[in-house]
Amino acid sequence: MKNIIVFLMISGWLFISCGTTTAITSTWKAPDAAPRTFDKVMVLGLIRDADRSIQQNMENHLVGDLKELGYNAYSALEEYGPKAFENLTEEQANQKLKSSGFDGVLTIVLLDKKQERYYVPGRVIYTPYFTYHTRFWGYYRTIYERIETPGYYSSYSNYFWESNLYDLNKNKLLYSIQTQSFEPSSREELAHEYGKLIVKSLVTNNLLIKQSTGGAKAM
What architecture is domain 21-117+159-204? Predict the structure, then answer.
């Protein structure tokens, strides 16, 4: 149990010290991937139905961050609805997107969500007798503090995500990034931090070029 508490404290400190609850755990980049632009990017969340609000928030925030970078980006949920790609073949799905002018797809996948439970032990505070016995309130407060504070169980949520950037024209994966979100205060905060982190990673790793507002032609 002590190891779990130590891990939790260290993890929480790392996230807080970075000013965010989301951190990158691993990335992969195609060897021949080069900085480029897209005419039109579809942001597609692959999240179970029970988490529809998470999907909407995640897509919308990532769309907004891509637009700030100068890209024509759209939410799959808003553009096509929740069931638009069900029962389609790969060819049919690609054609559906290409016919709407999309040449890039950025996916958001919730790989796992874990509810971790840990035990916070009680404590006993001892103060020597001579420091509290001469005054009533000192005696009362010290004895009160000496009473064992009972331990209790608490929990926190971990979200594990993956986002992939695809070139639809070449039908090719260009970049993959895995992240972990530690106990976000809200779904809005989770989506906001995730979108910023993903777009920053795409630019930093020379996958996307910042362009003027309104989009640019693909290279």
Answer: 2-Layer Sandwich (3.30)
